[in-house]
Amino acid sequence: MTLTIKDLKVKTEDKEILKGVDLTAESGKVTVLMGRNGSGKSTLANTIMGHPKYEIIEGKIIFDNTIINNLKPDERAKKGLFLSFQYPQEVSGVSFSNLLRSAYNSVKNTKVGFVEFRKLLEEKTKLLNIDMSFLNRNINEGFSGGEKKRSEILQLAVLEPKFAILDETDSGTDIDALKIIAHAINKIREDNNIGVLLITHYNRILKYIKPDKVAIMVDGKVVREDTTGKLADEIEAKGYTEYIEVSWFIFSTIYYFRIRNYGLKRL
Q: How confident is the model over 242-260, as a mean pLDDT?
């Protein structure tokens, strides 16, 4: 199963954020998307999941051989897409276990009872070293950064989607939490052959999750891809500056020739 993004252009509040993104991610493989803050990574993640704040101007999102541009977020989830949020929100008055059971029943189109679901949770919480009492707490209320990110991956483990988009899962976590999270992601991916689009700034999580492909995003476009595993190390050593400079040079050159040709046509 493949997630394919073709020439995707997206705006929000009349500002164009994605300016022609092309990217392909496959089942059973880890595709890593890296880039500076504001490059469009989270916009891409939210657009794939159908966030109404983001309007598709042009291009296609293709999942399981189906164009999903017009599907609602819940319809995309039922097709097998999952998004782990960069900033998980607190929800007072709703326990984490109730959220998980409601989501499971909705996505799987079933009605699992409390006792049966509790057994499932016991198995999944062990994977992330989470105490069962954790599930009685309100969603993300008073959670540490590491707890919030582990709760996101617990949702991934329970729902077992076909494809997971993980938006900066490593942010706000200490090294111990990061190792647990990375181990869980690897285990879930291997057991279920799911595809993973992993969004990150840094390569520290890539010490524990081996990427099959790394892509660099600059100013709303993917400017380079690599399958050798060297690109992430290159970014760690040199940063994103050279890619920003190359992107600006290409834009300036295209802009120059467009203006030049326009002037020649008017003569």
A: 52
